[in-house]
Design a protein that fits this description.
With 247 residues, the protein is α+β, with helices and mostly antiparallel strands. It contains ten helices and eight strands. Helix content is 43%, strand content 24%. Helix 4 packs parallel to helix 8 and helix 8 crosses helix 9.
Length: 247
């Protein structure tokens, strides 16, 4: 016998386009069992659940919202409900841990798990409430539709701006170290300096990011339509104190 969360996970992997064989190898569940869940189980009634209201942990939500706007998507469950997926590069195991923890805290069901793909990990959570918690969900790509915050989301972000900025940087940003050389007293010396970049195709998401930077006192420049740079020493120091490099 398998519990509901185990069945949900297996069916969710199949819904991603995975073969029964690969899902069976990953989960240890027989292909026959997975197939029976697909074809023999009675569909669950589509009951609209009560609205859980804003998340209790605003910091975890603000961070997860930043990750979702960068590398997340919401898709329908084959029977009922929704999956939230955040794609995280294998290179940043600490980021994967932070994402999974935040999703588990925010998810009304209190669950999240990982699925390995080529070059990245999908952190996944199942809930009927994801479209309410992330009203930016909709058909098509994010940069092809308006992205606006609901009033209750803005209240949370105003109280947790750094967590939101951190989520956006962890999804579509980076901290790099540049260098240059100068001649001092006849000697050529190398100087290194850090800067942050954020890249996104959505003008609305760029606007949300730069508005948050303005609110916390970080100077920024727009390199082009989809790239934001933070290079001033004091602003980089602020970012280092509250965001830091991916890990």
């Amino acid at each position: 016998m398998y519990d509901v969360s185990t069945r949900e996970r297996a069916l969710g992997l199949v819904a991603q386009g995975r073969s029964l064989n690969s899902v069976s190898l990953e989960t240890g569940i027989s292909r026959a069992a997975i197939r029976s869940w697909q074809t023999r189980l009675e569909p669950l009634p589509r009951i609209t659940p009560p609205d859980p209201g804003p998340p209790a942990d605003g910091g975890a939500y603000a961070y997860l919202l930043g990750l979702y706007l960068g590398d997340g998507c919401i898709s329908g469950h084959p029977r009922t409900g929704y999956y939230l997926r955040i794609a995280c590069a294998n290179s940043w195991p600490g980021l994967i841990d932070a994402c999974e923890t935040a999703m588990r805290i925010v998810n009304p069901a209190g669950r999240s798990y990982r699925t390995q793909a080529q070059g990245y990990v999908s952190v996944v959570g199942y809930s009927r409430h994801w479209p309410r918690l992330f009203p930016q969900h909709g058909p098509g790509k994010k940069h092809e539709r308006p992205i606006e915050l609901a009033p209750w989301q803005q209240v949370i972000l105003d109280a947790h701006l750094w967590e939101f900025i951190r989520g956006l940087i962890h999804s579509d940003g980076c901290r790099i170290t540049n260098w240059t050389t100068r001649t001092v007293a006849g000697e050529r010396k190398r100087y290194e300096y850090r800067r942050y970049f954020f890249t996104n195709h959505s003008a609305d998401i760029i606007r949300l990011f730069t508005k948050a930077l303005d609110q916390v006192g970080v100077d920024w420049k727009q390199a082009n339509a989809r790239n934001i740079s933070v290079a001033r020493k004091a602003s980089v120091a602020l970012m280092d104190a509250h965001v830091g490099p991916k890990y």
